[in-house]
Amino acid sequence: MAGFTTDKLMTILHPGIIMILFGILVMLLPRGFRKPLSIIAPVTAAWAFLQMTPDSSLPYKLAPYIQMEFIHLDSLAWTFMLVFCIIAILNGIYGIGIQHRYECGMSMVYAGSVMGVILAGDCISLIVFWEISAFASMYVVYCKHDRASARASFRYILVHAFGGNMLLAGLIIYMFHYDNNLGHLSDCIGEPCFWLIAIGIAVNAAIPPLHAWLPDAYPESTATGTVYLSSFTTKAAIYLMLRMMSGMTDLVWIGAIVAIYGACMAIMENGIRRLLAYHIVSQLGMMIAAAGVGGAIGIDAATAHAFTNILFKGVLMMGAGAVIYATGRSNITELGGLAKKMPVTAGCFLISSLAIAGLPSLSGFVSKALIMDAVHEAGYTIPALLLTAGGVGTLLSITLKINYFVFFGPCDDETVSEVDKKVPFSMNLAMVLGTAATVAIGIFPDKFYALMPYKTIVEPYHMGHVLEYIAIFIGGSIPFFLYLKKMKPHDEVTVDFDWFYRRPFNTLMLKISHVIESIFRWCGIHSGRAAEYLRLHFGDPTLWTRTSSSVRIKNFSFENEDRLVGDIVTAIVTVFAAMLIIAAIVAR
Amino acid sequence: MLLETLEYLGIAFICSVILIIMSKIILQALIRRPADYYNARELREEELMLNAGGISITKEHETNPEGEIIEEKHLEAQLGDIEAAEPEEIMLEVPDAIAESIEVHTEQEEDVAETVSEPEKYEEEAAEPEKEAEEVTEEPEPEPEVAEETEAEPEPEPEVPEETEPEPEPEPAVEEPEAEPEEPKTPEETFGFSIKAKTSRTKKPKRKEEEEAAEELEEAKAAMDEAKARAAENEPVSEWTESYAEIRDSLEKAFTERRRKPSMHMNKKELTEIAVGMGIELHDKVTKREILDLINEAAEEQAADSEL
């Protein structure tokens, strides 16, 4: 232990493991400990993270040739860890008054495991934390404890088990052929390990058609649970994509299509949180496109948008949770004119929704500027147009639709404009802090860009760029008001790719299980009968000849009398058994 | 710069129109389904599974932030349609399926002959007596299907029920719990309230009543099957009584706690339902506020009448 000082120890305190331990403590300790620990845990994790240096290392030798590395803090991981610590603290504040003990504990385990994914330096520690996060997040989906959340969490874990197993298989093959350290997959493009890892990441990054778990599961969780879920899983996948797959040009097209797809689905939705969930898909498309551009500007653009998205999407989810908490309703058709009753929520929601649409002076404008610069610089004209259209979709679905129909528009007879419960101070505080961060990033873009891995600087506030976004705002808003009647949501459900595993696959599995059950039942019945038959016939050998009991063997005995076959068999078996016994005794 | 700005204005306008047409017209027609598209089928599957497992009452708990159970959603859902009923009615009414289950199990504890009963085999072998019994008692109650499970024992010839008091089940093969009460209690004594088989808030046509009676009979049969399955597991009667007493308590709690007064917190549909339940006629373009006023007026009138 020579040379092992306290300072050295401080640098290897793993924030993720700290969060996980606090989460377990919250679940084990009495209820009274929940509230203080829900703040202490993320603050401690953030403090441990700030103590870390690029040299920090926490190795563990699993086998002679396999070493795990729990802490690998490069600049990319540092940026993601920073925003995860911030949102963990905000979520802790938000949920302090409304969270259940186990939900709180599991949320901490979930956040900690995702931090573990970010800090993982090798394939094994990555997959370990990845799987922990899948199961912890499954509980976070389920923690509402109703029928819908139970079913949604089951579907969630099925999809994530599939994705996790794909990633595991891919990483095992990668480790076998290459190295245990996490590296870029450019060397193995087209190989099985590449595709398996790509599928594993695509599931968590919600790339269609593997995205349906996201709008299916997120709206079913509690108010706090949805905020946690929207912050961590998908962004960890984007981090992994940046680390292993950045610069793969197909991703630009995939990202642009995903951005449009998410926006279209979001426009159709009626549930606030389901709409926001689809919007996560759309925003992930922008990050994927930037990751596809690659290089310093691409990685910085994707990281910057992930950073800002975690903050403003977090506030939007918090606002949606506050509305549901106060009114007990989640459908836009049932809500209206809430701005007067919930001014803080409405204000924070409005600012964050303007930020996500890219209004100048807010964070979304700063990060989108980086993305659009990256895509334009790389020469992708059509993907850039698609991304702009995705941005217009964001404006339509969140900034205009939710704000108009839920908060600021007129309240008609079908809607509820009163609140049943007052939103707790802690929820309002978290929303205000998140919004303040969003505004601060928008006002000080240079300081924000300096936090990015490659510190790429662009000038977002030049006149052309500002006018461009104002034009997008105006041009995108006009059709909304022209088609206002059409834009009004309806109380219906949208069928997505989850239809495949909720309808035909479900029916198929039921049929298969029915066939299997029939086979096993048949085997069970007949094996029982067979066993009974053998038991009876070995116990009474004459039964073997029961059907021929009338057959008599002539002149078998000394007296020339006729004998039954069964009697003869019994005699033979008895003699044979006696011989065996005598032989065994003699042999001894 | 102006041209560039106009270009982006045009792009944004066109994109916005295309997105609206795509999502609100094309995709709407292709992938929009009724709100219970998945739910209805899943509920049906769950019901089948629960029936297969001999379970008919499921409890979904809603918990407060500290994890305490604050309401039972299943019960609340069943009670939703009689929320607008009068308070004194509320205290006496429980959902039909549960009510009949309670009756059935109470009858198991006490003399079965108090209410009419016909075993399934009895129905097959002696259709005539069954008809008589139904006519006499007016409240047909199913009996546990005991005969099928006791093939080893010779089934005694079922007796034809006589007039108002049909004979009880000859020998219930389903073992009665050991702690059988010495003196049979009436449902009022057991639970403190009588259970109506059907709430009669609004008068319905006779044919509809008959259909409902048939549905009730089916539900009662299902409840009886469940009772048989439970009794086959030798579950003590006292536990049944306790469990249903709990249900009764939770029902009362749900009614007293969850019953919402008409207010602007409700949407128009809910207010309309309450108004119609109170016999108020509404025209098509009535607003929420007007409905609420009408409800309040009607309530005041009712209160004034009751005082007189």
Structure overview:
The complex is a heterodimer of chains A (about 600) and B (about 300). Helices cover about 70% and strands about 5% of the residues of chain A. Chain A has about 600 residues and is an all-alpha fold. The radius of gyration of chain A is 32 Å and the shape is elongated. Chain B is mainly alpha-helical and about 300 residues long. Chain B folds into three domains: about 1-30; about 75-260, no CATH class; about 270-305, no CATH class. A two-stranded antiparallel ribbon of chain B has the order 2-3. Mean pLDDT of chain B is about 60; it is low at about 60, about 65-95, about 100-205 and about 235-240. The chains are: A mainly alpha (about 600), B mainly alpha (about 300). Chains A and B meet through α11, α16, α19 and β3 of A and α1, β1, α2 and β2 of B.
Could you name the key traits of this structure?
heterodimer; A: about 600 residues; mainly alpha; 3 domains; two-stranded antiparallel sheet; B: about 300 residues; about 55% helix
DSSP strand content of chain A: under 5%
Most extensive interface, residues per chain? A-B, 58 and 49 residues
Q: Major beta sheet of chain A, specifics? A: 2 strands, antiparallel
How many distinct domains of chain B? Answer: 3
Number of E-state strands of chain A: 5
Mean pLDDT across all residues of chain B, rounded? 60
Unreliable spans of chain A: none
Task: Report the span from N to C terminus of chain A.
Answer: 65 Å
Oligomer: heterodimer
Q: Please bin the fraction of helical residues of chain A.
A: over 70%
**What is the domain total for the residues of chain A?**
3
Helix content of chain B: 55-70%
Encode the helix/strand succession of chain B as letters: HEHEEHHHHHHHHHH
Distance between the termini of chain B: 81 Å
Radius of gyration of chain A: 32 Å
- What is the overall shape of chain B? flat
The outline of chain A comes out as elongated
Total number of β-strand segments of chain B? 3
